[in-house]
């Protein structure tokens, strides 16, 4: 691991699963655990890692279990519950020789980061979730059932549920085109992937300015190798997580937190989200919420679209808790 912002790579075994971990920054520095979302990799943090290292932190960015060069749990979707994945990251924190770390998460990484703080607040100094707010457990309805009732079977979370079906569609389109479609989407509303097909393999999708052809090539190469099933299994385990987490119904997140989302993010524009985030709902469940930042004209991939701003936001917040 280099102290000058150079990113190095190694493998770490946790709970019988081998994780690929990218690192930057001095070995003895405070650790910032960076958790990516779908359909990405450690690489989503390529801008933040050198910035954190330069600020005196040790940035640690794994490929999430099932992604890229990290192994996939072998027993299928039920091994991707929040309890399983959080357990892997507690083991990773232990392997780093840390009692407590800073945690930053985007998209599914944010969901797992919230869950880590819910289950093991003693291991987290402060939290910076991006894009996805804390979602309190409803005792009345399972999460997949809830979004299906709101948006129907073609809503992307619902489209992802049947094992093998969306994988076949992504294979028909090709990994690179699938990634281009996700990266280029700036519709401030629900994402639909119809079972009848998500367009033609001949579709041409220009990239937004914040991501390069080289970046997409790296993502494509890695996801061609690992496939999408690991990442999709997080969605398929949503209802199982709901079943297992009934003891935490109504529980609060007792970790200092700064939440950031783009105003064009589909997560910010889902039914009820703006009111929950801005009118006290999030603060009720996250009493130590320091601030909510809504970035104007910013979509879902916020840490890549606004790399310098997000790096400064992370460092400015966590330095209060060194």
UniProtKB/TrEMBL annotation:
Enzyme class: hydrolase
Pathway the protein contributes to: Secondary metabolite biosynthesis; terpenoid biosynthesis
UniProt domain AB hydrolase-1: residue ranges: 30-180
Catalytic activity: an epoxide + H2O = an ethanediol; (24S)-24,25-epoxycucurbitadienol + H2O = (24R)-24,25-dihydroxycucurbitadienol
EC number(s) recorded for this UniProt protein: 3.3.2.10
Gene3D superfamilies per record: alpha/beta hydrolase
InterPro entries according to UniProt: AB_hydrolase_1, AB_hydrolase_fold, Epox_hydrolase-like
Sorted UniProt keywords: Hydrolase
GO MF entries: epoxide hydrolase activity
SUPFAM superfamilies, per database record: alpha/beta-Hydrolases (SSF53474)
The keyword Hydrolase belongs to this UniProt entry's keyword annotation: yes
Name of a matching Pfam family: Abhydrolase_1
Coiled-coil intervals, chain numbering: none
Its job: Epoxide hydrolase involved in the biosynthesis of cucurbitacin and mogroside tetracyclic triterpene natural products (e.g. siamenoside I and mogrosides IV, V and VI). Cucurbitacins have cytotoxic properties and exhibit deterrent taste as a defense barrier against herbivores. Mogrosides are nonsugar highly oxygenated compounds used as high-intensity zero-calorie sweeteners; they also possess pharmacological properties such as regulating immunity, lowering blood sugar and lipid levels, protecting the liver, and acting as antioxidants and antitumor agents.
UniProt similarity note: Belongs to the AB hydrolase superfamily. Epoxide hydrolase family.
UniProt protein name: soluble epoxide hydrolase
Species: Aegilops tauschii subsp. strangulata (Goatgrass)
């Amino acid at each position: 691991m280099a102290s000058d912002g150079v990113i190095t790579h190694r493998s770490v075994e946790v709970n019988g699963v081998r994780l690929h971990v990218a690192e930057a920054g001095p070995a003895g520095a405070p650790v910032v655990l960076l958790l990516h979302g779908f359909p990405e990799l450690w690489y989503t943090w390529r801008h933040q890692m050198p910035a954190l290292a330069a600020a005196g932190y040790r940035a640690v960015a794994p490929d999430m279990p099932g992604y890229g060069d990290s192994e996939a749990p072998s027993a299928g979707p039920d091994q991707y519950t929040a309890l399983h994945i959080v357990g892997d990251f507690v083991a990773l924190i232990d392997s780093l020789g840390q009692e407590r770390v800073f945690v930053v998460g985007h998209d599914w990484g944010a969901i797992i980061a919230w869950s880590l703080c819910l289950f093991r607040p003693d291991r987290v100094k402060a939290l910076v979730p991006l894009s996805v707010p804390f979602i309190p457990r409803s005792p009345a309805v399972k999460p997949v059932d809830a979004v299906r009732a709101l948006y129907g079977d073609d809503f992307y979370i619902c489209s992802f549920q049947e094992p093998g079906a969306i994988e076949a569609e992504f294979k028909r389109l090709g990994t690179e085109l699938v990634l281009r479609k996700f990266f280029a989407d700036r519709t401030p509303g629900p994402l639909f992937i119809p079972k009848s097909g998500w367009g033609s393999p001949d579709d041409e999708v220009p990239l937004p300015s914040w991501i390069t052809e080289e970046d997409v090539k790296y993502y494509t190469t890695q996801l061609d190798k690992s496939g999408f099933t690991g990442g999709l299994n997080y969605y398929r385990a949503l209802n199982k997580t709901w079943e297992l987490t009934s003891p935490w119904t109504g529980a609060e997140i007792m970790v200092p937190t700064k939440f950031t989302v783009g105003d064009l993010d589909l997560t910010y524009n889902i039914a009820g989200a703006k009111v929950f985030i801005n009118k006290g709902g999030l603060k009720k469940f996250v009493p130590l919420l320091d601030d909510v930042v809504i970035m104007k004209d910013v979509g879902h991939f916020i840490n890549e679209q606004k790399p310098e701003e997000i790096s400064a936001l992370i460092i400015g917040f966590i330095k209060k808790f060194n």
